[in-house]
User: Which sequence fits this backbone?
DNA sequence: ATGGGCGTTGCAGAGGATGCAACGGGCCAG
DNA sequence: CTGGCCCGTTGCATCCTCTGCAACGCCCAT
């Protein structure tokens, strides 16, 4: 809608690919160098881009702070976190929390027991939307036409032979998930990883987030993982209750 | 430099404080509602702001993805990480990695052994720049006039009685750190937490990052922590060597 | 019903963004 | 050492695009 801002913001994903110099930015934006320079300067003033010692630009530090504060405004996460930690302590597997936003499903929290992984390897990263249990849960709650629209728009990469192959299969899966109130991902993303997930609902019954438990099949079989379903659902329900209760702040 | 972009970007920190509606944004920017609307729309198209169900705007999900990719471009972090993990395995305490950028010092990695903390509670967050060991290390490497300029500009919150009280004390501390090549924070941020840190240098000898080890004083006394200094410095030096060696890629 | 609040749209005018051309500094090769 | 090249930077005139206004429509509360 606003050309200048649009151009400026287009620089960010561009720099996300890696550092670039003025000429490269100008070329990619298809504008004159002097224009690119002014845009970059403005971004720089706001800390969104940083000029490294070789004069090339890369994404800046303020982005962290903003992403940070963005996540802190998500009150679901705040309420859910202690529950996730508790569940993790109980069953030992990795626990994820995810939300749906603007055609993307993304993890907003993760609790991992075994070893301290670099958490940012997942947090904030869009999930494999066609196969992840949390994605199925979040999309299943959309209205039928919305589900259809999203399903048609997606790609269906075959991460493994058990990945969701196409829109038809995906929509069918969403219907199942919608009715049973929980979801699985049995080796659909990575051959040896299974997940089970449950939805977190707001006071109006709509799904506001989804949580999942993941475990490698070498540790627990899919059947064993499914025995955890009750406790996972109980946790999700507890979060739902607390979230609904707190809503009228 | 570019008014339109400048205004648009000013919306982000504003929304970081919490969700806001169109009128509030327009007022804070001191522009007409229609102008604010167009700016918000553009930000929205780029996923930087999200319009929640009550029509108010808040920071959007794409910010995660960007911050995510930003951190992945920091090659110091990549090189340092395995070393930090190794050190953590050896001594068991929390290990931090931080860089200086645009008048801010911020953590870009953290390895915590005991329990899986919410990593993003620290990663990306600006550190207590007047007291943290890593901050001292990074600032100590600036030129004298730069140090002075930064020191004057800072606030000196007294987190504890042992916090750095003012610019004079801070500059003196920086001189010490600069000469000895390592730094401490003994209860300067939180009464019961001590840290020791060492600098990571690039091929040109300049400090590109700093690492630190933190431990609660109830577990190890400050004196005991200081006995770890050699191994911390060795780790930092190992990272420096690898970083310098890899630089001519 | 009716008024107020809020978001939205179309438009004309003006202010700002754009691209051009020229400058300057660093770097490499001759 | 010197020339030339590349890249970032600056000032400026032109034109585009952003801006603020006013009017509309919608929803909610009175």
Assistant:
């Amino acid at each position: 809608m606003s050309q200048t801002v649009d151009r400026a913001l287009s620089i960010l994903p561009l720099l996300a690919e890696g550092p670039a110099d003025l000429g490269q930015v100008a070329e990619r934006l298809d504008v004159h160098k002097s224009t690119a320079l002014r845009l970059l300067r403005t971004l720089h003033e706001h800390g969104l881009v940083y000029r490294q010692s070789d004069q090339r630009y890369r994404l800046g530090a303020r982005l962290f702070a903003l992403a940070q504060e963005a996540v802190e405004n998500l009150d679901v996460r705040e309420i859910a976190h202690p529950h996730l930690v508790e569940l993790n302590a109980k069953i030992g597997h990795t626990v994820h929390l995810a939300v749906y936003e603007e055609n993307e499903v993304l993890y907003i929290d993760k609790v991992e027991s075994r070893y301290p992984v670099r958490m940012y390897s997942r947090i904030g990263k869009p999930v494999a939307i066609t196969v992840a249990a949390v994605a199925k849960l979040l999309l299943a709650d959309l209205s039928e036409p919305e589900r259809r629209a999203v399903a048609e728009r997606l790609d269906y990469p075959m991460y493994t032979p058990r990945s969701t192959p196409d829109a038809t299969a995906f929509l069918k899966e969403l219907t199942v998930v919608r009715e049973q109130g929980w979801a699985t991902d049995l080796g659909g993303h990575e051959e040896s990883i299974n997940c089970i997930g449950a939805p977190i609902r707001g006071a109006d019954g709509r799904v506001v987030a989804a949580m999942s438990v993941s475990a490698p099949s070498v540790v627990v079989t899919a059947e064993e993982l499914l025995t955890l379903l009750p406790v996972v659902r109980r946790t999700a329900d507890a979060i739902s209750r607390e979230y609904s209760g707190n809503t009228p702040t």
Observations:
- The domain at 74-246 of chain B is CATH 3.30.450.40 (Beta-Lactamase).
- Chain B has two domains: 3-65, 74-246.
